Amino acid sequence: MRPITILIADDEPEIADLIAMHLEREGYRTIKAADGKAAVQAIQTNAVDLAILDIMMPGLDGYEATRQIRERYQLPIIFVSAKTSDLDKITGLVIGADDYMTKPFNPLELVARVKAQLRRSMQLNQPADGLHQIIEAGGLVIDPDKRSVTLYGEPITLTPKEFDILVLLASHPNKVFGAENIFQQVWGDAYYESGNTVMVHIRTLRRKLGEDKDKFIKTVWGVGYTFNG
């Protein structure tokens, strides 16, 4: 069995070395990259299970690297960045990151978050034991096993979190989920800014569903969101 491999992309060698030291103590294999371009190339040429990315890197920054990674790969991504505003965090999560930590950070907390993301990733990739429950509603087809979505036969590209939100809502039609509940179930964590994060993800998800946004995902004002199946 191959070791779990984690990519660390940061243009500050001392930070990359610190993260690598703590992860290797836990038995993980690490690969280091000094910029976004090298990070993308590392994922293309290695079996990487999780990526830890800085945002402010020379050349290709963490945001653009994430966009390129998300075009082909579904591995968990954690941003570790000196950018601390709520907008920065929401931007990172919307682009496709699964978690966001600000510098300076506690390495032990980062290791705990890595373990949590790996557990979640492994659960999502478990075989469905023969159950292939495709969700269909008014031209929208969601295949949880293949993690694919089509609308009137045309594929829709979603980030992992957008897909997980859609599956959560569509699997429970007409049930209202509060923003905090959605965040806890999709991100697997309690988070003080979950409301804004979920709201932005819902907004981008609706935009990708095009003119049918009101047909599928509805806002129950003051309560949360529901899928009109």
TrEMBL record:
Subcellular location: Cytoplasm
InterPro entries, A to Z: CheY-like_superfamily, OmpR/PhoB-type_DNA-bd, Sig_transdc_resp-reg_receiver, WalR-like, WH-like_DNA-bd_sf
Biological process, per Gene Ontology: regulation of DNA-templated transcription
GO molecular function list: phosphorelay response regulator activity; transcription cis-regulatory region binding
Keywords for this protein: DNA-binding, Phosphoprotein, Transcription, Transcription regulation, Two-component regulatory system
PROSITE patterns tied to this protein: OMPR_PHOB (PS51755), RESPONSE_REGULATORY (PS50110)
Residues found modified as 4-aspartylphosphate: D54
Domain named Response regulatory: residues: 5-118
Highest taxon in the source lineage: Bacteria
GO cellular component, one term: protein-DNA complex
DNA-binding region as annotated in the record: 132-229
Limits of the OmpR/PhoB-type domain: 132-229
Database matches in CDD domains: trans_reg_C (cd00383)
Protein name: Response regulator transcription factor
Organism name: Cohnella lubricantis
